[in-house]
Amino acid sequence: MTASHTSAGAPEVDPRRWKALTFIAIAQLMVVLDATVVNIALPHAQADLNISDGNRQWVITAYSLAFGGLLLLGGRIGDLWGRKRAFIVGLVGFALASALGGAAVNLGMLLASRALQGVFGALLAPAALSLLTVAFTEARERAKAFGIFGAIAAAGGAVGLLLGGVLTEYINWRWCMYVNIVFAVVAAAGATVYISDRGDQRNRDRLDVVGTLLATVGLVALVYGFARAEQDGWGSGLTLGMFVAAVVLLAAFALVESRVRAPLLPLRVITDRNRGGAYLSIGLAMIGMFGQFLFLTYFLQLNKGYSPVLCGIAFLPLVVCLVIGSTQIGTRLVNRVPARFLMGPGFLLAAIGMALLTQLEVDSSFATHVLPSEILLGLGMGTASMPGMSLATARVRPQDAGVASAMVNVSQQVGGSIGTALLNTVAASATSSWIAARAFSGSVPETAAQQAAVHGYAVAFGWGTAIMALAALIAFVLVNGGGRSKADGEAAQQVGIPVVAH
């Protein structure tokens, strides 16, 4: 289905765009919450399928490798095939992969399902954001739509913790996989009826095979490097080898993209000052957010004795504040205030919230230490994420919407991988140093072990604070909200797309 055109050649506004947003949002929620819902289910799946401690991390890594490595290709396929088709194929494939995981009888079957989820997620996620980008072009409506989408993207991880806790505790870990089928069926049915896709916004250039191989293998090496750093340490030969390979491959990719006629990732997408600043600041902010989810989950369950369900409920204030920050603050101000004055202060507020967690002690209460941090983090990230995601896809040529959207997901995925590996390593090192400095004779007392663990969390939160503050600085410095590139503007006007200023 396509939108009709006016006599002047500009497309009429699709009257079904808000209904389409509903199903795009459902799909986005499924992809985002899948990352954390599986974390909650993993201990139960490990026991049920007799997975060793050494192999359990592959349940997470299999997904992240496929998803992170194939995102740029997924975005380009959406530009080539049509975003609606890529969106629906991604949903159906994700549902089938989830069904395979729920029915898994051994580790191999579970890993295959997780890898397939990553493959179809890499097709689905860029298509969802690019559909939103081309459907909402009027400034006020675009702000509202991206506010809703940004809130879901930011809050989905916390929702996954809650949903995973409920399903695991009251039903079975397998339902953490099966639940995706419900999301996918609803979203696919709605997309078939309500989502429109214009053929003249496709990029029908031949696929850049060399660039695709370099980008895919380079991103896989990068994500795998961070996964190994978490397991083996930053100095291990395999970790360093993966990082060196990633740098070489991605540098070669950039060189190829600057010379081929039809690049996988046109460099104009990332060299634009505002888009580049948005990608970089979002990626840095995700490092801090993933660290916050990870260590607060540890603290609440292992140190405070919360059940999985109660732990999920404890994240609800964060979710509520994320939604408020995105839909009520970011959305209302984005067309009145330059993006840098929403993103910068938003990330700074989130950094203050993270800084509060550096004061965490074993006997710290939820009300006095965790809740204030969640409120500041939620409001800050919600306020910053809405203009950040909108700016990251603004003023692109319609034919580039898929790869621009894929870059948002790449920054989030790489940021999350870095956050998990870097901050986990920092926390473990700080914990070991705390114990070594006290020179316990024999085994470490339980109370001391808890103190050491919480000290490690606090140090990791300190690093997260600094990284979040750096995201704020980059938003202030790079995001100028000024003029657009001439090429992008001309391309947009040729197909009747108004250029949205930020």
TrEMBL record:
The chain crosses the membrane at residues 20-42, 57-74, 86-109, 115-136, 148-171, 177-195, 207-227, 233-256, 277-300, 306-325, 337-355, 375-394, 414-437, 457-479. It is a multi-pass membrane protein. Signal peptide: none annotated. It is found in: Cell membrane. The keyword Membrane applies. Keywords: Antibiotic resistance, Cell membrane, Membrane, Transmembrane, Transmembrane helix, Transport. The keyword Transferase does not apply. Residues 20-483 form the Major facilitator superfamily (MFS) profile domain. InterPro entries: EmrB-like, MFS, MFS_dom, MFS_trans_sf. NCBIfam families: efflux_EmrB (TIGR00711). This is MFS transporter. It comes from Streptomyces plumbiresistens. The lineage of its organism: Bacteria, Bacillati, Actinomycetota, Actinomycetes, Kitasatosporales.
